[in-house]
């Protein structure tokens, strides 16, 4: 993919984050999501590309969507033939979550961000709007831990791989009733648990950075966000596995269909022959080139949130590329009008 597209993708997540951050703490999660969607769509439609949304957002709570199958980019417009050469154009698949952690924004809590992943056509797994059992771990534990092993076993493996005591490990788990036994097992094993209300993409990616004080993500979260996490971890060389959860009794939310059999039928219609398959990062983000981009909306482990000042704002983004084998933290000052001053930090 053109490096220019990679640079413009940064602005896509920045604009979504800025738009959403204006609604931080106002208790309006759908509005915070809607403005992020609109900002992300508008900026993507200014990029010289033919993009297709393979993972959208908002289906479970009737929020506004960048819907699955939507085409974005200048070269998807009606008059595209006037300035886009189809022989030179790479078609791009895009997975988006314009406001990952809508409740976090609405209530002024840490950890929300605008996030997306891109790859060439067919390079991202088109996950259904189901749930996914996830396991993320640092590079040293890659292919040593396994989602089919117990939390106790995996914690001991991570301990051995990182040469640190289990008691020194921190595991992120979403604060949900379905995780009661998992949380109890992790604590019994001696590790520490960091409970989060929403936003497990940041937690998964944090496992790939030493110094984040996050050593594993365990538990069940949204499947689409699992693909985005996998894209980042594939680029970082970290460990990620995901297994689709299709039984409503397991997730205990009533949000993924009325019956187990109905969900199995839906997976069959999507061409997923083995509903219990465990996917690794390279399968969920299989493209030759994969790029992950995120921008903090509220402060988090990896990035600062949007900071407004008179006439502008400052953002911090993270861009990870499999092509250049880089993880870039991008600090940007946005000048909306003639500013009275520019905030340094």
CATH topology of the largest domain: Fructose-1,6-Bisphosphatase, Chain A, domain 1
Q: SSE order, as H and E?
A: HHEEEHEEHEHEHEHEHHEHEEEE
Overall, the morphology is globular
Span between N and C termini? Answer: 33 Å
Give the radius of gyration.
Answer: 20 Å
CATH class of the largest domain: Alpha Beta
> What's the count of strands?
14
Structural class: alpha+beta
Would you give an account of this structure?
The chain is globular. Helices cover 29% and strands 26% of the residues. The chain is of the alpha+beta class and 345 residues long. The longest helix is centred in the N-terminal third of the chain and has 19 residues, at 3-21. It starts with a helix and ends in a 10-residue tail after the last strand. It has 2 domains: 3-121 and 289-335, Fructose-1,6-Bisphosphatase, subunit A, domain 1 (Fructose-1,6-Bisphosphatase, Chain A, domain 1, 2-Layer Sandwich), CATH 3.30.540; 131-284, D-Maltodextrin-Binding Protein, domain 2. Strands 1, 2, 3, 4, 11, 12, 13 and 14 form an 8-stranded mixed sheet that branches. A 6-stranded mixed sheet has the order 7-6-8-5-9-10, sandwiched between helices.
Which terms summarize this structure?
345 residues; alpha+beta; Fructose-1,6-Bisphosphatase, Chain A, domain 1; D-Maltodextrin-Binding Protein, domain 2; 2 domains; 8-stranded mixed beta sheet; 6-stranded mixed beta sheet; 10 helices; 14 strands; globular
């Amino acid at each position: 993919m053109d490096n220019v597209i990679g640079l413009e993708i940064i602005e896509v997540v920045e604009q979504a984050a800025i738009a959403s951050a204006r609604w931080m703490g106002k208790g309006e999660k759908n509005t915070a999501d809607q403005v992020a969607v609109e900002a992300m769509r508008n900026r993507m439609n200014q990029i010289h590309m033919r993009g297709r949304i393979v993972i959208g957002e908002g289906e479970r709570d009737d929020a506004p969507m960048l819907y699955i199958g939507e085409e974005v980019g200048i070269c998807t417009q009606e008059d595209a033939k006037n300035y886009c050469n189809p022989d030179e154009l790479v078609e791009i698949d895009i997975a988006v979550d314009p406001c990952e952690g809508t409740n976090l924004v609405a209530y002024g809590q840490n950890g929300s961000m605008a996030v997306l992943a891109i790859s060439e056509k067919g390079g991202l797994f088109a996950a259904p709007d189901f749930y996914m059992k996830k396991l993320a771990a640092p590079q040293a534990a890659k292919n040593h831990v396994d989602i089919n092993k117990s939390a106790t076993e995996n914690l001991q493996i991570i301990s051995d791989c990182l040469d640190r005591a289990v008691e020194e490990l921190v595991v992120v788990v979403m604060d949900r009733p379905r995780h009661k036994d998992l949380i109890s097992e992790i604590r019994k094993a001696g590790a520490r648990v960091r409970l989060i209300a929403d936003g497990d993409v940041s937690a998964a990616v944090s496992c790939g950075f030493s110094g984040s004080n996050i050593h594993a993500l365990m538990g069940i979260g949204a499947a689409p966000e699992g693909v985005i996490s996998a894209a980042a971890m594939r680029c970082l060389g970290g460990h990620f596995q995901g297994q689709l959860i299709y039984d409503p009794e397991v997730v205990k939310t009533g949000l993924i269909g009325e019956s187990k059999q109905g969900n199995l039928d839906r997976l069959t219609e999507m061409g997923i022959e083995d509903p219990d398959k465990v996917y690794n990062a390279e399968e969920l983000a299989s493209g030759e080139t994969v790029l992950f981009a995120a921008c903090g909306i509220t402060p988090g482990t990896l990035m600062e949130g949007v900071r407004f000042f008179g006439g502008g704002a400052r953002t911090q983004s993270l861009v990870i590329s499999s092509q250049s084998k880089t993880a870039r933290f991008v600090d940007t000052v946005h000048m909306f009008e003639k500013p009275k001053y520019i905030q340094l930090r």
